[in-house]
Amino acid sequence: MAGSPKDNKAPAPFADPILAARLEAIKQLAGGLTGRVAVMDHSFNVIYANESAWSSASTRDSDGRLAKCYEAFAHRSDPCGTCPAIKVFDTPEIQSVSCQSGGDGTACGMHQAFPLASGHGDIGSMLVLFKDEQFRISIDLTPVSEEQPLPAVRESLGELIGRSPAMQQLFDMTVLIADSAGTVLIQGESGTGKEVLARTIHALSRRKEHPFVVVDCGALPETLLESELFGHVKGAFTGAVADKRGLFEEADGGTIFLDEIADTAPVFQAKLLRVLQEGEIKRVGGARPISVDVRVISAANKDLAELVKAKLFRQDLYYRLAVLPLFLPPLRERREDIPLLVRHFVAASCVRHRQTVRHVAEKTMRALSNAPWPGNIRELQHYIERGVVTTDGPSLGCEELVAIVAETEQESLRSASRGAVAQTERTRIVDALKKTAGNRLKAAKLLKISRASLYNKLRAYHID
């Protein structure tokens, strides 16, 4: 890894609370791993390394100061060549960097590097996983002896399925973070499997014997959402005829999954922030705080960082939720996984509908692999099930499934058309508000729509 040979003193502890929380979570996770894990700053000073990493290190300053990464892990006195991990700092939108062992800049054996963002959104440091010859990270973290061959590419983790490099990275990170106490933010398009990932994290954690509670934040109005999550006391509002425990209390000891967190209102976001900061809730209409031990996993199909910039989501809550961020790639970016998913869905659907397991012809599989799948894995699963139910015979015929794919492409075109119309309408509304200096009544008259319709569209298009 490249780094500056000067300033070899260990960095001061993180002043940023988000970075400090992430480092503490990594320490808890990596302490007992046989795999080598380290955290480096911009200058490639080793901020933290687990015992497995230090056992293979060649140097550690006698006065306790941590070495440069190239000294500790590449056994060099001078910096390496250009390190692939520098992309983590140079290109903030990168989710991770993978490096092949060997070659310039990877003498340390680095396998993957992940950015660690500070509370201000800048990349303050990076988490590095090393490629080891004698050990592997698995669900039970079992050491592999030198005589045993290295394991083949993993095709699944819990209910997650995939052989692609993107999914292998996700599997590694999921195992690494599953047993921590840190909050997890899962981002990805609709239908990519965010709830499945959240369930997998819960199933791999020490909380697996406790409840896993799912909340669709986008499906509930603000007042009902607050009551559902925090509970209410008798008489708090009309219809509150008795005290009610909230879902945070129901999930005590376990995990709560807040889906579509981007669709929540600012007032609710402020109350959720307090729960994350204090570890306690107050029922609606109540004054007594109630302590809860709940791990929060949230998900969004929108870019929360962009919503923060647009002042549509609280920045402080974003950094609290994204201590451990994960990204689920869309299906079009992991097409090599489609045959694996198709076979899995065909087998599961045949069992569910009491049919003999069907075969998918190679020509059909190619057509499915090349389809756009704007609805991602959920859409693929639904179309496979439809094909199983509406056809018979030992195999799924190409004609039936290719017809489904054609329908998918047509729907994609219709979606694109609707998106263009919506963008045009949004632009007209913004222009009308500018012309009327923000007067909504005048803007509605200018647009020739009712004021109620304008308010609905302002909410729908997230226009402040």
Question: Could you characterize what this model shows?
Answer:
The structure is a single chain. The chain is an alpha/beta fold. It is 40% helix and 14% strand. The chain has helices at 17-30, 51-55, 69-72, 87-90, 165-177, 194-203, 222-230, 247-250, 266-278, 304-309, 315-321, 338-352, 362-370, 376-390, 398-435, 440-447, 451-460, and strands at 37-41, 46-49, 97-98, 110-117, 123-130, 156-157, 160-161, 184-187, 212-216, 231-232, 244-245, 255-259, 280-281, 290-291, 295-300, 324-327, 359-360, 395-396. A 5-stranded antiparallel sheet has the order 2-1-5-4-3. A 5-stranded parallel sheet has the order 9-12-15-8-16. Helix 16 (440-447) packs across helix 17 (451-460).
Secondary structure: elements and pairs:
Layout: H1 17-30, E1 37-41, E2 46-49, H2 51-55, H3 69-72, H4 87-90, E3 97-98, E4 110-117, E5 123-130, E6 156-157, E7 160-161, H5 165-177, E8 184-187, H6 194-203, E9 212-216, H7 222-230, E10 231-232, E11 244-245, H8 247-250, E12 255-259, H9 266-278, E13 280-281, E14 290-291, E15 295-300, H10 304-309, H11 315-321, E16 324-327, H12 338-352, E17 359-360, H13 362-370, H14 376-390, E18 395-396, H15 398-435, H16 440-447, H17 451-460
Parallel strand pairs: 8-15, 8-16, 9-12, 12-15, 17-18
Antiparallel strand pairs: 1-2, 1-5, 3-4, 4-5, 6-7, 10-11, 13-14
Characteristics of this structure?
alpha/beta, five-stranded antiparallel β-sheet, globular, disordered N terminus, single chain
